[in-house]
Amino acid sequence: MNDIQFLQQLLQIDSSNPPGNEHRVTEAFIARCKRKSLPYKVTFLDKNRSNFEVTLQGKSDKQLFLCGHMDTVSPGSGEWNYSPFSGEIVDGRIYGRGASDMKSGLAGMFLALEEIFLTDAVPPATVTFLATAGEEVDSCGARAFLKDNEKRKVDALVIAEPTDEKIVIGHKGALWLEIITFGRTSHGSMPEQGINAVDHMLKVIQILNEMKVEWRAEKEPLGQSSLAVTMIEGGVQTNVIPDKCRIRADIRTVPPQSHYNFTELLKSKLDLLIEQDEIFQYRVEIILDRPSILTQPSEDIIQIAQMLKRESNTDHFGVSYYTDGAVLNPKSDIPTLIYGPGDEKLAHQPNEWVSIEAYRRSIQLYKQLILNYGKQKVIQSSPLKGGGV
């Protein structure tokens, strides 16, 4: 099975999350490892969910981690020109859910490590390939790995999320809040007898819009922070004054913004509305809390990637989405490179695809990263010519 067929095999596995079923992807890795006599480790999270690891011992005590997730979002209700679980090839592209986000990067990392193993090469650093479950929802795989490996040393981390082959040194933080306003029902024809939770939510949204401006920050190369109300639900029926209204807000942050400070400031503003009899009662719940991560461009893993791609020291970027790096590296203590062949603009979209040439280039770049990280002098060989395994 060549590199293209292996990616097609992964794309033909439905690992949409929920429910995940990532162990089906793990089984594909296991089958390949058994054929190649490559040692591996499986950690079960649930009956059909698991993490998968392969480790190659290196010449030094440095530890390089290659990380990707096995789950995808669902195909959605949008129209697909090609089946989302076909792995169909058209005009130099492979189509399917996860082609960009991020089974192409996941397969590329594994094949790079496999190729080094099959040639009996010993990398400068010990290298671990970690395929996780659950990144698209709650990063349950990354959290389980961290729990079992709290003292495990990691000197550098590479995450294969889609970057359109750009060198990415960080991502924004993500804070998802659920805010509920409470009121009291009454007949719709007698609104003065009740307390309208929807009316009160409008005042909460106004506070959020004010905070969006007051709280705004910018940090290169991540860009600006953002805040958006993305869901709203409330009311019983047309002729009943609503006693509850619920919204969700998606907040994206950049260093040094603090999610805790934002949440506490919001609560203090809402408490003031209560004191002023503008709203009745509220509740704020944190649904997701992922910090931003940012690596200095001078770190070895970034410098090596730039040298391999023949790019200048200014050719690095940030992305808006979060990654498992927010769990594995919450304080940005570990130098982290985000690099993948997929285009982030295609993630979660119908007709998701990845370029075959970009996929093959990624295999070679991951391979050269492995062979160079931990060396005093970088091998001057370009990974950009493609080629399969």
What labels would you give this structure?
six-stranded mixed β-sheet, 9 helices, 389 residues, alpha+beta
Give the secondary structure arrangement, pairings included.
Elements: H1 3-11, H2 23-36, E1 41-46, E2 49-56, E3 63-69, E4 89-90, E5 93-95, H3 99-118, E6 126-132, H4 140-148, E7 156-159, E8 168-171, E9 173-182, H5 197-214, E10 218-219, E11 223-224, E12 226-234, E13 244-253, H6 259-275, E14 281-290, E15 293-294, H7 300-308, E16 317-319, H8 325-328, E17 336-338, E18 353-355, H9 356-372
Parallel strand pairs: 3-6, 3-7, 7-17, 8-16
Antiparallel strand pairs: 1-2, 2-6, 4-5, 5-18, 8-15, 9-13, 9-14, 10-11, 12-13
Walk me through what this model shows.
There is one protein chain. By secondary structure, the chain is of the alpha+beta class. Helices cover 30% and strands 24% of the residues. The strands form 5 sheets. A 6-stranded mixed β-sheet has the order 1-2-6-3-7-17, sandwiched between helices. Strand 1 (41-46) and strand 2 form a beta hairpin. Helix 1 (3-11) crosses helix 3 (99-118). The model is unreliable at 380-389 (pLDDT under 50).
Shape label:
elongated
Let me know the average pLDDT.
94
> For the terminal residues, how far apart are their CA atoms?
9 Å
Which structural class do you get from the secondary structure elements? alpha+beta
Main sheet record: 6 strands, mixed
SSE pattern = HHEEEEEHEHEEEHEEEEHEEHEHEEH
Strand order of the largest sheet: 1-2-6-3-7-17
What is the number of E strands?
Answer: 18
Helix content: 25-40%
